[in-house]
Amino acid sequence: MGLLSDPSRRKALTGLLTRLNTPICGMPVEWLVKAMQSRGLEVFTQSFSRKLPFPDENKERYMVRGTNVYGILRAPRAPRTEALVISAPCSPGDSNNQAVGLLLALAQYFRNQVYWAKDIIFLVNEHDLMGTQAWLEAYHHTNITGMEYSPLQGRAGSIQAALSLELSSDVITSLDLILEGLNGQLPNLDLANLFYAFCQKLGVLCTIQGKLQRNDWDTAEGYTHAAQTMMLMVLKQACGRSWGDHGLFLRYHIEATDAATIGRLLEGMIRKLNNLLERLHQSYFFYCTSFFSFSLQPSGPGVLTVLTPVVISHLTGVALYLLPVHLQEMAVEHFPVSETEAVVLTAVAIYTAGLALPHNTQRLLSGEGTEQGWKVLKLTALLYLAVLLGCTALINFSLGFVLAVTLVPITASTTPHMPKALSALVMVLLSPAFTILYCVFIYQELIEAPVSVSEGWMLFLSVISQGILDHALYGSLVYPLLALFIYPCWLMFWNILFWS
């Protein structure tokens, strides 16, 4: 009987290795420094560390320590007030070694050119997004995620644009343009158009959402293809996570995109960005501001009747936001689960318990609910939902759209006089949690990787844990938005349904 033959021992050893986060082979820092120096770059390193709120079982890490290596190619004939960034994440193993090699080859080629008007920074970051986050925070002298990092010894000018390289194989047959960033941010339309047009000029196949663009837009197949591409982009935006290193640059108003690409194309892109005389500006945003006022002065008991479910619903949301991470140690001590499982299952339990907590609360504190009471509560909830969806759409339009499609029809028609059982079932099936579950299945269908119900459920739990981690590590707003605002607002309508 070996050490790993016992399931409990195997699980304990796996947890220990995850906590220690000891890779078999880390990033070759010294080799990268020498390679960049041999290409005439000013080379610097930056160390960083971060303790995750709970172990990331997807990437098997808990205590993260890493080093970023970056080299600066100074512009020979410019005041050096602006810069461009080319980054390549150095992933464990050899999954992205080709991108690092391409980055070094570009550095050697660019070094021999004299037309650069901007500094060019070649960044090799460890631990994917965490390394990029540490480098960007140090570059801009901010610390919004609580990460520990050493200050940067070398700096360039204001970063105008960035390209992140990720190569999936040695043989490149096409380029996939990845645009979605943190909290649904997108790079400037100019950058995407420039990239796509340059691919067409060089005869390089360029895909968006993994799909080649069609020319027969006026056919049924063309419309179906366009709808699938649009839905994929909506779902990826709505989740609020960054789909590559480029997504973190967007937070600092740096136009960035992620691509699997080739040398000639990259050299052309950097030359075009090098010739910019001003920031990219061809993006169109529509802001809709509505002003409304109303006069409603219910009596004192009526105000209390409305405030009670509102306050308790939001206290439930606060519990959903705070308790899963804070109670993980207690859950691990009393139940045979890992820290990650404890966080996710606690969140699910609080969400489910919330269905009963605000239920008929107004009767417990204020006696029988009145007809005017539920109407005032519904008016308040509808105005609240309208403001929430409007603000969400300004930050992340796709997330606001998905929430509006699922929440508006049922909430607008909710009254205490509806059939309770059927209406409750419909409301639960259109609640925020089930919306996430539907998005998981739809996304898997769109990428042509359908999953079973059990596999979809596991992906759903993984999405929850990843959302909490993304909020703690990178400042993603989706989890706090759903926990602190959308879910309490939905609970207010749930309370209206059972008003009596």
From TrEMBL:
Which example biological process does GO assign this protein?
A: attachment of GPI anchor to protein
Keyword Lipoprotein part of the UniProt annotation:
no
One GO cellular-component annotation of the UniProt record comes to: GPI-anchor transamidase complex
The UniProt keywords, alphabetically, are: Disulfide bond, Endoplasmic reticulum, Glycoprotein, GPI-anchor biosynthesis, Membrane, Transmembrane, Transmembrane helix
Q: Which residues cross the membrane?
A: 302-322, 342-360, 381-410, 422-444, 480-499
Keyword set includes Disulfide bond: yes
* Quaternary structure and partners: Heteropentamer. Part of the GPI-anchor transamidase complex, consisting of PIGK, PIGT, PIGS, PIGU and GAA1. Interacts with PIGK.
**Highest lineage ranks of the organism?**
Eukaryota, Metazoa, Chordata, Craniata, Vertebrata
At the top level of its lineage, which domain of life is listed? Eukaryota
Topology relative to the membrane: Multi-pass membrane protein
Question: Which InterPro entries does UniProt cross-reference here?
Answer: Gaa1 (IPR007246)
* Protein name per Swiss-Prot or TrEMBL: GPI-anchor transamidase component GPAA1
One Pfam family, short name? Gaa1
* Function as written in the Swiss-Prot or TrEMBL entry: Component of the glycosylphosphatidylinositol-anchor (GPI-anchor) transamidase (GPI-T) complex that catalyzes the formation of the linkage between a proprotein and a GPI-anchor and participates in GPI anchored protein biosynthesis. Binds GPI-anchor.
Tell me the pathway. Glycolipid biosynthesis; glycosylphosphatidylinositol-anchor biosynthesis
Cellular localisation: Endoplasmic reticulum membrane
